[in-house]
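ENCODED BACKBONE
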Amino acid sequence: MGLNDFNNTKLAIWPNPAKDNIQFSGADITEVRVFDLLGKQVLLQNLNVGTSTVDISSLKNGIYMVQASDTNGATSTVKLVKN
């Protein structure tokens, strides 16, 4: 498994741009890391299988990279705009 593999399905997050919460589809996500554009991790959240919502209300408005890991250890990274 590699980047963007997720059992041969692409990771999708919505809404994007987002205000308070983001949701995931495409895989059983177990961990979400959010990085600013300087590469600093600004959020880490472990999720229970079946949970697909992450609270991002504490983040400042801007552009972030969201890295999600699934139950198989595969990771995917997508861009997120926070309003």
